Amino acid sequence: MRAAVYHAPGDVRIEELERPEPGPGEVLVEMRACGICGSDLLDWYIERRAPVVLGHEPVGVVVESGAPIDGPLPEVGTRVFAHHHVPCQRCERCRRGHETLCETFKETRLHPGGFSEYILVPARNVALDVLPVPDGISDAAATAIEPLACAVRGQRRAGVSADTRLLVVGGGQIGLLNAQAALAAGASVAIAEPLPDRRALAARLGTHSVEPDAAAVLDVLGGRPTVALLCTGADAAWTLALEAMDAGGKVQLFAPASPGATRSFEANDLFFREIQIQASYSAGPSDTRTALELIRSGAVRPEGLVTHRFPLEETANALDAARRREAVKAIVTPT
After folding, report:
1. How far apart are alpha carbons 73 and 136 in whole angstroms?
2. Per-residue pLDDT at 226
3. Could you tell me the pTM of the whole model?
4. Can you give the pLDDT at residue 205?
5. Burial of residue 286 (number of CB atoms within 10 Å: 0-12, 13-18, 19+)
6. pLDDT in the model for residue 32
């Protein structure tokens, strides 16, 4: 089978790999589409695992399964979303609501990865987080289940509701998904984004979008934001969030920064305004189900974010387009 193998920065090769055989409780999925995530572009994050097949936003069709273990497996021919990590749901971290920090979560993964003709889904993942995709959801839209689930979890941690004035910093795929999810919850939303074409896309999706400026944010929200989601690791996102934030607000780090990056603040400023700083990483099984329902209901319309499509052979070009910010959301398909 063909797969796009990342060897080093700028070195992604199409290679022939052995097609996996599913064991007990496992399923083999033929990839129909796989989205590119911002983490697929972070060489410092992925080169330590090279050579590796990237891609963790796949949708595909079950073509083979192993023997059942504890219950029925998805039938051959079923179109599914498969989550790349799943928690144990038993450890202390899981019980504290930190499923994405669970050791099992870190160990479980799709094989070899989403940018491959066939994907082996381990038994743990099949049991907890393989979801049938309804006929009314396109392959392109289904690739947004995983990133939207991350948005769902982050907003749950931040307490986003109809009473929230939300600032989303960064108008890429994840920022726009966050904005749509928050609008579905009834929140007032503003996206701060420097690129005009991305601000225009946000406006078409029904979200206020402004240049990264505190006064502009306050103007469109009708007051200071009560929650800020930093969907970019840029220094300026942190500065804007603290400048604009209302007393008692929350600033959430939703995207990683470069290695060694630091953020500064005046301690008494945060103290007397009671500003909370938090982070949110990835998503769990309940979040993927909520994300799927948001897409199924039409509350979130991810297909409108797909600006570029590439065949598997051009995965390197797909990654480059996303890295250069030419693509808001790029997806890879088999042909």
Report:
1. 22
2. 98
3. 0.97
4. 87
5. middle
6. 98
Sign of CA dihedral 123, 128, 130, 134: positive
Return d(Cα 176, Cα 174) in angstroms, integer. 5
What pLDDT shows up at residue 277? 98
Distance CA 16, CA 134 (A): 32
Q: What is the pLDDT of residue 196?
A: 96
- Give the angle 124-129-133 at the CA atoms, nearest 5°: 140
Residues in the chain: 335
Q: How many helices (H) and strands (E) does the chain have?
A: 13, 16
User: HSE of 24 in the Cβ direction (CA atoms, 13 Å)?
Assistant: 3
Strands 58-65 and 27-35: antiparallel
In terms of Cβ atoms closer than 10 Å to its own Cβ (0-12, 13-18, 19+), residue 261 is exposed
- H or E element, residue 252: strand 250-253
Q: Sign of the CA dihedral 62, 66, 70, 71? A: positive
Low-confidence ranges of the chain (pLDDT < 50): none
